[in-house]
């Protein structure tokens, strides 16, 4: 955006780039929803893979390693495609900001909080992201229609999540209030990231994912070397494999799909994949880790699907013809 010059001869500061507006009646096809489902599958693998890796790899080193592996994977593909990474400061400032609020800060906070908060409670608290995204969109940014149907969908999805992890988990809330508030702050950060990510819609999704992951991996590399001293670790082959798979599938492919969904479906609909991840993640945990099937899985899945449907069905399809 060109800068204007005032009468005093001083250059006025450039105006902030407005968020792209998502139209209420934007046409969506089955490919868009297939991308949303694919994103949910990629990010669902986070739960079982992280559990396999974190037993022998500390959190900071784990997050840094998977980010750098993902960045290397994407840079190799970009090189084969002949796509150049932008070198201007504006682009890298956007990449850095997005990575901080979408990955580095929330993942470190949640990792710390999980030392005090049970996994089931963490799942419930982290599933409030669509609700926070709705509130921020409807009250502050207003960059896309935030209908009551979408709010109802967010609440239904949260109810389904609670049903899947078990109603007994609600009794444990409040015992570790500081850690629980920290998780909520992380989910608010996730919600802000889905909105801020719209500013990156002019860039190739693979470029955004590669740049963001490279920044995040390099940011955590020094503390990893100082605190964890990776050369002294003895990770199991299973943990190394989990880190590599998570870097390529969850981080590289998942983040690329995330930016594609943002540009095609908007903030609120993209957030619906957060609820799809719960039953998919449970299924992967049963298959990969041998965990038991939750007794309320059927009820929770029904509520989750109803919530996702309410958040993703375009408004024009609900109108009577």
TrEMBL record:
Q: Does the keyword Membrane apply?
A: yes
Q: Its membrane topology, per UniProt?
A: Multi-pass membrane protein
Keyword list, A-Z: Membrane, Transmembrane, Transmembrane helix
| Domain of life, per lineage | Bacteria
Q: Among its keywords, does the record have Transmembrane?
A: yes
Domain named EamA: which ranges?
34-165, 179-311
Q: Which residues cross the membrane?
A: 33-50, 56-78, 99-117, 123-141, 148-165, 177-200, 207-227, 239-262, 274-290, 296-315
Q: Where in the cell is it found?
A: Membrane
Q: Which Pfam families match?
A: EamA
SUPFAM superfamilies noted in UniProt: Multidrug resistance efflux transporter EmrE
One Gene Ontology cellular component? membrane
Q: What is this protein called in UniProt?
A: EamA domain-containing protein
> Which species is listed as the source?
Bradyrhizobium neotropicale
User: Which lineage do the record's taxonomy fields give for this organism?
Assistant: Bacteria, Pseudomonadati, Pseudomonadota, Alphaproteobacteria, Hyphomicrobiales
């Amino acid at each position: 955006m060109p800068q204007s010059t005032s009468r005093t001869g001083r250059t006025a500061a450039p105006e902030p780039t407005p968020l792209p507006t998502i139209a209420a009646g934007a046409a969506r096809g089955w490919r868009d929803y297939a991308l949303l489902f694919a994103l949910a599958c990629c990010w669902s693998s986070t739960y079982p893979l992280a559990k396999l890796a974190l037993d022998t790899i500390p959190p900071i080193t784990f997050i840094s390693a998977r980010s750098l592996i993902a960045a290397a994977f994407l840079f190799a593909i970009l090189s084969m495609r002949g796509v150049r990474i932008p070198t201007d400061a504006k682009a890298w400032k956007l990449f850095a900001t997005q990575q901080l609020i979408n990955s580095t800060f929330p993942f470190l906070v949640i990792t710390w909080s999980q030392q005090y908060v049970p996994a089931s409670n963490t799942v419930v608290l982290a599933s409030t992201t669509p609700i926070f995204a709705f509130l921020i969109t409807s009250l502050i940014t207003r960059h896309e229609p935030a209908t009551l149907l979408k709010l109802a969908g967010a609440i239904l999805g949260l109810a389904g999540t609670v049903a899947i992890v078990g109603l007994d988990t609600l009794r444990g809330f409040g015992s570790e209030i500081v850690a629980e508030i920290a998780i909520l702050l992380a989910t608010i950060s996730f919600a802000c990231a889905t909105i801020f990510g719209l500013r990156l819609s002019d860039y190739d999704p693979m470029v955004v994912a590669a740049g963001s992951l490279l920044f995040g991996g390099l940011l955590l590399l020094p503390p990893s070397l100082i605190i964890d001293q990776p050369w002294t670790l003895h990770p199991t082959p299973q943990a190394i494999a989990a880190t590599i798979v998570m870097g390529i599938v969850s981080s590289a492919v998942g983040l690329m799909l995330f930016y594609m969904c943002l540009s095609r479906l908007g903030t609120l609909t993209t957030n619906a994949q957060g609820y799809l991840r719960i039953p998919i993640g449970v299924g992967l945990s049963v298959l990969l880790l041998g965990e038991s099937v939750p007794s309320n899985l059927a009820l929770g899945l029904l509520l989750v699907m109803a919530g996702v449907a309410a958040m993703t069905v375009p408004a024009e399809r609900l109108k009577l013809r």
